[in-house]
Fold:
Amino acid sequence: MISKTSPFQGGGDQLRGECDEHYTAAQSGQTMLLFRVFGVCFIIFANSVFAEPILEGYSVVRGKDYAFEIKAPQSWVLDNEAAKDQGINLVFYPTGTDWNTSKAVIYVRVRTNDATIRNIADQVNDTLRNLRATGSPNVAVKHVKTVTTQDASKAEIYYFAGDKFGNFEAAAYIQAKNSIHFITVSARDQDSFRQAIPAFDAVVTSYENLAKLPATESQPGNES
Structure:
C-alpha cells in the first residue's frame, strides 16, 4: 500500500524540493489542457485502448494481445468518453467533478513493446527524455515501491515531479507479455495529489490481467 501521508516522506525530500522549486501550476488562467499535458502528451506512443461498459464497478480494457480488468475506486467515476479526444478511453475522477475540472484524475494507457521499449525501465527513461526535451529539463522521477495486484502481477510505482506546469504524478507500470500497462494519477497541486493516492492505490491493486494463463496444476501420475 502507498502511504496515505505525504507522498514525499521516507526518502523523497529531494524530489519534493525540486517540485516546490519549480511549482507554477494553479494559476487562475491555466487551462486544464496544460494540466493534462504532463501525463498524456506522449499518448501517440500508446496503443488504442478499448474499454467495455462498467459492470458492478469494473471495466475491461482490451486490445491486440492484451486484456485486463480494473475497478473504479470508491467515490470516483469511471468514464469511457471524457478523454477520447486525447486518445484516452478510460479515466477516473472524483464524484462531483469531471475530467476538465477535477484537480486530480486517474487514467489508463497501454504501450506495446518494440525495439526500443522492452521493459518498464525503458519506458520510464523514455518518458523522462521526452519531458526534458519538451520544456521540462528539471523533471525528476523516483521509484517508490512495488505493489502486488489482484492477480499477483507486480506494479512498479514511480513518482514524477518538477515539470514546467507544476503537476504531481504517480504511475504504476505493469509488465505484460507484449506490452506495458500504465495506471497514472495526475494532480495539479500536492494536496490534491496526496488526497488521490488512496484511490490510485485501489485502482492499481484491483488490476487483473485476463490474458494470463493460469498456473498448470500438477496432475497425479506426472511426477518424476
In short: Residues 1 and 178 are 27 Å apart (CA to CA). Residues 13-209 form a domain with the Protein Transport Mog1p; Chain A fold (CATH 3.40.1000.10). The longest helix spans residues 190-206.
